[in-house]
Amino acid sequence: MHKPVLLKEAIAGLNLNKESVVVDATLGGGGHSSEILRIIGSKGGLIAIDRDAKAVESFREKNDNINLILINDNFSNIKKILKENGIEEVDAILADFGLSSDQLDNSERGFSFLSDADLDMRMDRSQKLTAVDVVNYYSEEELKKILWEYGEEKYAPMIARNIAETRSKKPIEKVSELVSLIESSVPEEYKKGKIHFATKTFQALRIEVNDELNSINKFLKGAISILKPGGRLVTIAFHSGEDRITKNTFKNFEKGCICPPEFPVCRCGRKSLISIITKKPIVASEEEIRENPRARSAKMRIVEKK
């Protein structure tokens, strides 16, 4: 069953009322959206977005609220999506950058290394690039870079080399084939760690296939621009790269004048657009982590539009 991460903290951070117009930019399993709908009731409105058509249709089947708009699109297009629906500003925006449990548990999607499937990993099944393409056609150097930068995999050189050698004889197409290859590329002590030895490689490939970091960067800028004054943006990141982009973007938008200190008056005209509510990210409690291990790496940040 899908369990939304940091649910209470997210709802509190959004600062909702009965008339709030809210965007859930990453619908997923719908846990956050369901709670948002309960709070805003019939006077508010929710725009829920997901690039996974199945997630959108699944939520549509369970909800017939007249104040709900469901959109199958990449959340990086948030400004365009709202404009097309006649909405200029919103009171609150939520984005959970992680995969939903429904996606992870779907054995056909290839996100999880715990069940065998084709190496797919597409959030949007209509796009062409899959994990099979990345694994079989990216150069060894490109693979090493992706595994290191997106997965922080310290054995990236060995894994990339083994992938290159293996695919020269036969294409790597199944989850089980890649897991076995990773297993033979890392030392025994690495296999006894707290996380599965394939976790970081699969994470890196998923991020590359879905161009996730670029999407987050575009989304954050668009989201801040469409918030009303006093509106809140709440983000939940699960990967250091996601959190770093979020942190740096928020700092940049909070910054005002950037003129040299020797200037007697401001000439740049730059103004601070947001206030950072969370000076340090909010993390899950030990109790939540016990109930939902996915929450262990979650970091929530909250900003308010000026």
Furnish the topology, listing elements before pairings:
Layout: H1 7-14, E1 21-24, H2 31-40, E2 45-50, H3 53-62, E3 68-72, H4 78-84, E4 90-96, H5 101-105, H6 131-137, H7 140-151, H8 156-167, H9 175-183, H10 199-209, H11 212-226, E5 227-237, H12 240-254, E6 274-276, H13 286-291, E7 299-305
Parallel strand pairs: 1-2, 1-4, 2-3, 4-5
Antiparallel strand pairs: 5-7, 6-7
Helix pairs in contact: 7-8, 7-10, 11-12
Can I get a quick summary?
With 306 residues, the protein is α/β, with parallel strands linked by helices. It has helices at 7-14, 31-40, 53-62, 78-84, 101-105, 131-137, 140-151, 156-167, 175-183, 199-209, 212-226, 240-254, 286-291; strands spanning 21-24, 45-50, 68-72, 90-96, 227-237, 274-276, 299-305. 42% of the residues lie in helices and 14% in strands.
How would you describe what is shown here?
By secondary structure, the chain is α/β, with parallel strands linked by helices. Helix content is 42%, strand content 14%. Strands 3-2-1-4-5-7-6 form a seven-stranded mixed beta sheet, with helices on both faces. Helix 7 (140-151) runs antiparallel to helix 8 (156-167). It starts with 6 loop residues before the first helix and ends with a strand.
